[in-house]
Amino acid sequence: MNAVDRSIGVDNPCLADTIAAYKANRNSSNGNQNKASGGAGEVEHIARGCSYKEFLNCQPGNFDGTKGTVSLTRWFEKMESLVNIYNCAESCQVKYATCTLLDGALTWCNSYIKTMGLDAAYETTWEELKKMMTKEYCPRNAIQKMETELWNLTVKGTDVVGYTRRFQELALLCLTMVTLEYKKVELYIWGLTNGIQGKVTSSRPTKIQEVICMAHELMDQVVQAKDAKDADNKRKWKDDRKRNSDQKLYKRHEAGRVYAAGTSNKTGYARTLPLCDK
After folding, report:
1. Distance CA 125, CA 146 (A)
2. Is 142 exposed, middle or buried (0-12, 13-18, 19+ CB in 10 A)?
3. Which of 2, 108, 172, 212 has minimal Cβ neighbours within 10 Å of its Cβ?
4. Does residue 93 have a pLDDT over 60?
5. 15-28 mean pLDDT
6. Interacting residues of 214 by C-beta distance below 8 A, sequence separation 6+
7. CA Rg, the chain, in Å?
8. What number of CA atoms fall less than 13 Å from residue 170's CA on the CB side?
9. Cα 112 from Cα 120, distance rounded (Å)
C-alpha cells in the first residue's frame, strides 16, 4: 500500500478529504493548461513529485531509535503526512524518510543498505520499511500489549477525538491487524458507541477516512443534543426552585395573617374589679 493512500490528520480527521479535493482541482487545472502543449507539463510534474529540498524545508523531524514506540509512531505519522501533502513519488519515499534518521537508527539503516546494496535497499517500499523498523525498535511483548489495547479500544463517553487519535497511533504499529483497509474500517467501527456504530455500519463505508469523518459528525450531533437537554433541565430546575420559594413565602404570609387575625379577635377583661391572676 502506498503511503499516499493512508489516513492522516489525527487532530483533524477530515484533512485527507481536503487534500484530495485540492489535488483533484490542481490536476484538473494542470490538465486544462497542458492540453495545447500535449500534456508535457503534467507528465513532468507527476514524474518529478517533490524534491528533496522541498521535503527538508518542511522540517520533517528525526528519529534516533532511543525513545520507544511513541517516538517511532510520531515519526511514521510525520513522514506519511508530508508524503501525502507534497505528493512525493513512491520511489523517493524511503530515500527521503531514511535521510532523517540519526545515531543508532542511522547505523541500523546503513547496515541494511550495506547488506542489500544501495539500489535494492531504496527499492524497499514504505510499508516494508515500517514493518522492519517496528520489528527492530518495538519489542514483540510491547506490540502484543498494543494489539490487545487496539482490539479492546472503545470510545470513552463522547471523546471520539481521543479514540480516533489513539486508534491511529496503535494502527501504525499493529500492522498485522490492519493491513487490509476493510479490517481497519471494521475495527474502528467496533469501538464506537452503540448508537453511532449502527448508523455508521448502515452506510457501508469502505475507507477509514469516511468512517472517521462520519463518526465525528454524529458524535457532534450527540453532544449538541445533550447540551441542549442539560440546558433545558437546568432551566426547569431554576423554575421549580423559584416556584417552591414563592410557595414558601406565600405560606409564611398566610400564617402571619391568620395569627394576626386571631389575636385581634380576643375579648379583653371588661369588669370594674381588679383581675385576679390566680
Report:
1. 24
2. middle
3. 2
4. yes
5. 48
6. 199, 200, 203, 205
7. 35
8. 24
9. 10
Secondary structure of the chain in HEC code, one letter for each residue: CCHHHCCCCCCCCCHHHHHHHHHHHHHHHHHHHCCCCCCHHHHHHHHHCCCHHHHHHCCCCCECCCCHHHHHHHHHHHHHHHHHHCCCCHHHHHHHHHCCECHHHHHHHHHHHHHHCHHHHHCCCHHHHHHHHHHHHCCHHHHHHHHHHHHHCCCCCCCHHHHHHHHHHHHHHCHHHCCCHHHHHHHHHHCCCHHHHHHHHHCCCCCHHHHHHHHHHHHHHHHHHHHHHHHHHHHHHHHHHHHHHHHHHHHHHHHHHHHHHHHHCCCCCCCCCCCCCC
| Grid cell in block for residue 256 | 402571619
Distance CA 150, CA 137 (A): 19
C-alpha cell at 183: 479490517
Q: Grid coordinates representing 245?
A: 420559594
- Domain ranges in the chain are 1-137, 139-229
What digits encode the pLDDT tens for the residues 151-198?
999 999 889 999 999 998 888 888 788 888 889 999 999 999 888 988
